């Protein structure tokens, strides 16, 4: 019998880490990237200007009666900390930590009247991941063992960042560029997008995967024209998150309109088995990209992944560092993983959630051995040097 859960605590941390958009000045991730807010010129140059980093990182700690602590980081900051402390903690304290299914179910259905997606599911994900971390630490097992074990010896990564040419030199299998200009910047912006991609194609050679991340910024007409030009002129591998996450109909049309051979991907701002079922049943995309820290955690990701597997849809989680690595290694329909390049250049590989985690593994030559994950839980610790604030202590 495992020790019961004694206490749940929620903290906020500022700066780089799980809220990876909370970076200092001059970072590639905040340099004129197309967004749904780009239609307003005053919010075009910087995503921080419209508040992309307003929430900060949520840190959830779950302590068992024997003093063992599981933890997780995700986004959601202070409002998510409120939800965890004031609402969700009641479904854990005094319970047996093996009750992951029941705890998830109670967290989701008790918040359904104000939740279902977004911030509330971020908070649920943070608790779920902390619970899996605790279970692994109590059982002295890595999470990927508890999920069924590795189906291959190593992970392969593509890199997201402004320099796919450097990512290629570092051994990644592909590079995903942020799109810089949205529909409000007209044909001139479209030409600049294509010129940037063409420049990367010439630097990377014909065989390297190049992808475009559109961060929900386009409309169907623009996305269709961009997809056609980027595929025909630059050999684009996939067009990601071109439309609003609510526009399932637009995605279904984009997938039909896209040239054969170009993949349509989306899902990092989608949540739960029900949201992903919409994407898959409506044939919105070729690859779903749930973020493990936003979609409902590992408990929900298992359901999403099983449905994707049964439909023959590939699932390649968005970012999410160790939370994604432990899952991807257990699944054949997740043949590779994303690595978000959080170095400001990005000219070096640094841990995705640096500096918040100690022991966070990084790819070497674009790969990571399964043995790099062979530590209890998710295999990381909270960096004690990162200041934490607990806004709602009980
Ligand atoms: C680079 C993208 O705009 C975003 O910041 C990250 C993302 O969507 C992804 O890694 O995928
Ligand atoms: Mg993306």
Write structural notes for this entry.
- The chain is an alpha/beta fold.
- Helices cover 33% and strands 16% of the residues.
- Strands 4, 5, 6, 7, 8, 9, 10, 11 and 13 form a 9-stranded mixed β-sheet that branches.
- The radius of gyration is 20 Å and the shape is globular.
- The two termini are 27 Å apart.
- The structure holds ligand LR3VJJ5N and magnesium ion.
- Residues 29, 33, 160, 178, 213, 215, 268, 318-319, 338, 340 line the site of ligand LR3VJJ5N.
Brief summary of the model shown:
This protein is α/β, with parallel strands linked by helices. The chain is 33% helix and 16% strand. The protein has helices at 77-86, 100-110, 118-139, 143-146, 164-169, 186-204, 220-234, 248-257, 272-281, 297-311, 321-328, and strands at 5-13, 57-64, 69-75, 154-160, 174-178, 209-213, 238-240, 263-266, 287-288, 314-315, 337-340, 357-358, 367-369, 381-382.
